[in-house]
Amino acid sequence: MPNNVGYFAIECDDVERAKRFYEAVMGWRIEPWGPPGYYHIYTGTKNKPGILGALQGRRGPKGPGNHGFECTVNVEDLDAVIAAVEAGGGRIDMPRYRIEGVGVLIYFEDTEGNRVGAMQYDGPQVWPEGVLGTS
Fold it and tell me: Which own/partner pairs from 29-37 qualify as long-range (CB within 8 Å, at least 24 positions apart)?
């Protein structure tokens, strides 16, 4: 049985700024939960739940490179995401890169310096041939 991602956390220096950024860029619903400055991120809807996440203050000093879990978010409109990232104070870290037969990928840096991927698939997301007996 494979282990699927069931939860993710985004650490940030300014939780309120990051909340505004991700609500605008990804359309996520972000609501306070638990201790002050801690939020649950709801990436889906009641009928099509996504992954539950958290938005929280940074737990340690930020240094160069990735120091956490890098996520790539599946998006329907990459152009809209790029525009929202730039309008929301983020920056495109890696411009559009086409993966033949898969889709188009970008990486961006959020307002907190975290690196995030966004992928617009060419069609329905499917497992590569030969993975888990899908030949």
Answer: 30/55
pTM over 0.85: no
CATH T-level assignment (fold) for domain 7-58+69-127: 2,3-Dihydroxybiphenyl 1,2-Dioxygenase; domain 1 (3.10.180)
Q: What is the pLDDT of residues 49-89, one digit of tens each?
A: 888 889 988 777 766 655 556 788 889 999 999 999 999 99
**Beta strand 103-109 pairing with 115-121:** antiparallel
For 25, the 3-state DSSP assignment is helix
For 1-14, how does the pLDDT look when each residue is reduced to its tens digit (9 = 90+)? 556 667 888 988 89
